[in-house]
Every structure is written in C-alpha cells, then in structure tokens.
Design brief:
The chain is an alpha+beta fold. The protein is built from twelve helices and 18 strands.
Length: 392
C-alpha cells in the first residue's frame, strides 16, 4: 500500500501555515510570489548548500490545475525582494487563484524533499513521488457558493510537479505530488473544531459544547462568522464577508512609504510592526526610531469599526448568543481596537486568544485534527474490509 502523508494546510493571505505527518513538521511561508522569466542570477552559487531553502525558494510548476502552467516563480522570502511581487488581492476568490495552488504545491514539495521523508516517498535519481492526504479550507462565502467542489477536483486525479531551480540544498530535485484524498473545510467550522477537540478528536472544552457561540475569523481577504448551536454550525445563519485586513495593511504600507520614505517588502512586514512585543508601531527612519502610531491607529480603528458592525449585526440576529471568539491573524492585528470599541459601546461577551501563535495557527491546527481523524477512520474501515476478504 502506497504511503500517504498527512498535510494540513492553511493558505492564509499573510502566510501559508502547514502541519505534516504525526505533528513532526511545520512550515510557515509568506504568501508572496514573483513570476520569473529566466533563471535568477546567484552570487556565490557554491555556497547554496549552506543557506536556508526558505530564503531562496525558486521553482518551476507543472500542473493541469494551473491557468499559467510551466511557469517559474520566486516564492516567500525571496519573492518579497522582487519588484514584481504579488499578494492576493482583496475581492479575489482563494479557490480560483493560481497563487493559492502555487503556494500549496511549493509547501508540500518542501516537505517532500526533507530528509525525514526519504524512507517514505519513492525516489528515482532526482525525482520524488509524494502522496498526500490533504486537509485544507476556504472562506465560508466560497464554500456556500459551491467553489470547494471545483477546488477539490483540481487537486485530485492529477500529478502536480514542482521543480526546484536555484534553491539552496534542493536545486535540481523534482517532486511529483499526488493526493489520495482532499478535504476542504469551511474556515468558521474549522475554528469551532479547534476550540473543542484535541489532536486525537477528544473533547477538551466541554463547557463550550452546548453553548451558543459565534466565531469571527478575520483573515486577510475575508471575514467568516460561524454561528454555533446544538454542537453544529448553523450554515444558514453563518456568513462570510469580503472584508479582511489586507487593504488596511496596504494602506499603512503606502502611507509609511509616502510619509517616511521607507519601503516595506510585504504586508507581513506591516503586521510585524503592528504586533511586535517591543517598539510596537515604530520603524527605523535613517537610523532613528520613529513612531507610526498616527498612521496605524487611524487606519486600523476604521477597520475595527467595520468588523464591530459585522459582529453587532450577526449578534442581533442571534440574540441568545453567549460569547464570540475572535480568531485569525486579523484578530491579532485588531485585538486592542476591538476591545476598546466593545468597552465603550455594547459590551458584548467577547474573547481573544492571548497567545498570538495559537490564534494565527488555529486554522492549520483545526485542519490537522479533522484530516487526521478522517484518515484514522478510513484506515480502520480498510482494515476491516481486508480482514473480511482474508476470512472469505
């Protein structure tokens, strides 16, 4: 039987978060790509093996799932240094963008070439055949529109090849990716699963199971609000909105550039300025520590007001709600502003995750719990069928 490795992947607007195997590996890569026309020049190519592959991710992708097939890309940290770097645009659909698939395939390929998988995946010279059982997700709005089925079918039944070009340690390797199974979960539902189940699908928060709760998941391009009662997500009342933090981050980035002459590489750089422990909302301008509070406060408070309005509207329609949890990278960015608004206005029972990593990795953790539970159940079913066949 062919080995299929578990992959739980959250393609977030800011970065891609992925968990593999038996929780033995994780990857976090900025969701930035830059198209390359030809192989990039490298100074000191003989030093490639001593560098981190994540800082020089340079690949060619072959896949029938891609609209732009057989193209070369710089990805992640390397792409942020390019003049033609692209991030997902507000208003775009995650399920229909090549960039979502490019990031997904590159991340899986990085996992496949790592030393820990040498005994699992077949390798013929420089070509590695890697099978995955994938758990991932899409914004609620896209799932409600039925786009999850099309996204899943793009991945299943085809071979997707990632060829490492001028990448440290992996130059010249090719990875053929196939999926044994793909599960696409609505993001709001996944957040609920992460709150109430551990990695073995055991209930950990019994007090939440029978509560009526909202989960407001604020992402880069969208916001999902899951309405949960009777241990289920109410699909009719749950809503997705085209409102995320990416536009606000771009606005902050542009105002910092125009006011201070400082060019930030990506939205992720803006997030680090807003959320870092020391010198929060400060940048270095010509070697001097400079506050950008005036820019960040004005723009983020405006976005927080819009997010608070969404909460108020959904809560009014679900008046017996007991608590709302704010999750996702966007919630981390807006936490202080939302708390201040709530204290000054309605005073809803809301909560955040003080551990920022827990909030940011919530979707990937949820997908891991769901896909590993699915794999355990299907493995048991296969074992039972095999035993019956042997007895027959």
């Amino acid at each position: 039987m062919t080995y299929s490795r578990i992959a739980a992947v959250d393609v977030g607007n800011d970065s891609i978060k992925a968990i593999f195997g038996q929780l033995d590996s994780e990857l976090n890569i900025p969701n930035v790509i830059a198209r390359d026309i030809e192989d990039r020049p490298v100074i000191g190519i003989e030093e490639l093996d001593s560098k981190d592959p994540l800082d020089g991710l340079h690949v060619r992708l072959h896949s029938p799932a891609l609209a732009d097939n057989n193209a070369i890309y710089r990805i992640g940290n390397l792409a942020t240094k390019s003049n033609n770097a692209t991030e997902l645009d507000p208003g775009s659909s995650k399920s229909e963008e090549d960039q979502t698939l490019i990031m997904l395939f590159a991340t899986l390929a990085l996992d496949a070439v790592s030393a820990r998988n040498e005994k699992h995946f077949q390798r013929n010279k420089n070509v590695i055949d890697a099978n995955y059982t994938l758990g991932t997700g899409l914004p609620l709005r896209e799932v409600k529109e039925g786009k999850d089925a099309g996204y899943r079918s793009k991945l299943l039944g085809s071979v997707h090849q990632v060829e490492f070009l001028i990448t440290p340690k992996y130059q010249g390797l090719k990875v053929n990716i196939k999926f044994d199974e793909v599960k696409v979960y609505p993001e709001g539902f996944a957040a609920f699963i992460n709150l109430v189940l551990d990695n073995n699908a055991n209930i950990i928060n019994k007090e939440l199971i029978d509560k009526r709760i909202l989960i407001q998941d604020i992402g880069g391009l969208s916001t999902d609000i899951a309405v949960i009662k009777n241990r289920n997500v109410d699909d009719d009342k749950a809503q997705g909105f085209n409102l995320g933090v990416s536009e606000a981050l771009e606005q902050i980035r542009e105002e910092i550039r125009s006011k201070h002459g400082v060019e930030l590489d990506s939205r992720r750089d803006v997030v680090e300025i807003i959320t870092k422990k020391n010198d929060r909302n400060h940048i270095m301008v010509r070697g001097s520590r400079t506050s950008v509070h005036d820019i960040t406060d004005r723009i983020l408070l405006d976005l927080a007001k819009k997010q608070y309005r969404l909460l108020r509207n959904i809560w009014q329609k679900n008046s017996q709600t007991e608590i709302c949890y704010f999750v996702g990278g966007g919630a981390t960015v807006l936490k202080d502003y939302l708390k201040t608004l709530n204290n000054n206005l309605d005073g809803y029972n809301i909560d955040f995750f003080e551990d920022e990593k827990e909030s940011i990795w919530m979707m990937a953790n949820a997908y891991y719990k769901l896909i590993s539970d699915f794999k355990k159940k299907t493995s048991k079913e296969t074992d039972v069928k095999d035993q019956k066949a042997v007895k027959a």
